[in-house]
Specification:
The chain is of the alpha+beta class. The protein has one domain: DD-peptidase/beta-lactamase superfamily (Beta-lactamase), CATH 3.40.710. It is built from twelve helices and twelve strands. Helix 6 packs across helix 7.
Length: about 375
């Protein structure tokens, strides 16, 4: 018998058949409809900031909780959730925003040396903007957030003499706080701490102890912003430590003006200092808005700072005619600069800008 298999032998024919099958299978696999790997989702414009956690190694003074949730932290006793809230809980910034009435300066010289990222002078009585820079630009607002926290607390109509037990979650990495874990503090004292001392744990405790817990409280903050027509405003936490809490100078001015219409909040934001006692010890704090202590024409307001927001201040001042105006700066480069620029704008509107307040100035210039 010859070495090797004959071309007509069954063994040889079987090998040829197997080879042909393998080739055909390879061709089929290369042309078959295979489900492609889903591409990585790209967030829509304007949603990137709301979806991404802060960069690692952030050097901000007011740091968020280490776990940094994508949704507000659940209240004590609530099951923690990793899923985002319903779509109406965190409304995106409306594409069409209201156009405020911006007055023309005419022959009035504009304010000088205003270097903050955004600023304005606003007359709530007439809904007129006397002067502004980047009026409608949404920016992180840091602890100015607590003004909305206070409004939602009042809306709930709860007895402010009720005690709240401070939790470990309230104080964890709160950065600025004057309360301690397991201390009992009244809602009224927490309100003062949040607005006078800009206490982050106090704002968290207010939200956590609310009827709907932290998640429901933040949802209500956003719904109230929509009801007030604050189209450039959204919140994801009650303290302002999260840079995804954003607003525009125009919205901030209207928010602060709304709060100052509430006698309770006007009294609190206008206090130079505050003293109270927890269940364990006495506490004394000073208003972070130093202008309340320094100037008789400043009746209230709120400061804010995290690295992403810069130094912010929205305050209510009285014109020479006694008309309340909101002066705000967002994104100042230093603590000293924000106060200096608000003083500068206040002095300008009380002097050179007086015709705009009295109504003697020109009419509507449209949105910037």
């Amino acid at each position: 018998m010859r070495r090797g298999a004959s071309r007509s032998s069954p063994l040889f024919l079987g090998l040829v058949a197997v080879g042909a099958f393998v080739v055909a299978l390879a061709r089929f696999s290369s042309t078959a409809d295979v489900e492609p790997v889903a591409p990585t989702a790209v967030p829509a414009a304007g949603a990137a900031q709301a979806a991404a956690p802060p960069a690692a190694g952030s050097d901000r003074t007011d740091a968020p909780p280490a776990a940094y949730p994508e949704a507000p932290v659940a209240a004590a006793g609530e099951a923690p959730s990793t899923a985002p809230p319903a779509s109406d809980a965190w409304p995106t910034i409306a594409p069409e925003r209201s156009s405020p009435r911006v007055l023309e300066l005419g022959g009035v010289r504009p304010p000088r040396r205003i270097r903050s990222a955004a600023a304005l002078i606003y007359n709530p009585a007439t809904d007129e903007v006397l002067w502004a820079s980047n009026l409608l630009d949404p920016r992180p607002i840091a602890s100015i957030t607590k003004v909305m926290t206070a409004l939602v607390l009042l809306e709930h109509g709860r007895d402010l003499t009720l005690d709240v037990v401070v939790s470990g979650r309230d104080v964890r990495r709160a950065s600025t706080t004057h309360v301690r874990r397991r201390e009992r503090v009244t809602l009224d004292d927490l309100l003062h701490l949040a607005l006078v001392a800009s206490d982050n744990a106090a704002a968290r405790a207010i939200a956590r102890a609310s009827p709907g817990g932290t998640r429901g409280f933040v949802e209500r903050m956003n719904h109230m912003a929509a009801e007030l027509g604050l189209d450039s405003t959204r919140f994801v936490d009650p303290s302002g430590l999260d840079e995804r809490n954003v607003s525009s100078p125009y919205d901030v001015a209207r928010l602060v003006a709304t709060a100052m219409e509430k006698p309770v909040l006007a009294r609190v934001m206008g206090k130079p200092s505050y003293r109270f006692r927890t269940s364990r010890r006495p506490v004394a704090v000073r208003n972070t808005n130093r202008l309340v202590r320094e100037r008789a024409d400043v009746t209230g307001g709120k400061t804010g700072y995290i690295r992403e927001a810069g130094y912010c201040l929205a305050t209510v001042v009285e014109s020479r005619e006694g008309i309340p105006l909101v002066v705000a700066v967002l994104g100042a480069r230093s603590n000293a600069e924000r106060f200096a620029e608000v003083r500068r704008l206040t002095d300008w509107v009380r002097n050179q800008g007086r015709p705009l307040v009295s109504g003697a100035g020109p009419g509507n210039a449209g949105a910037p």
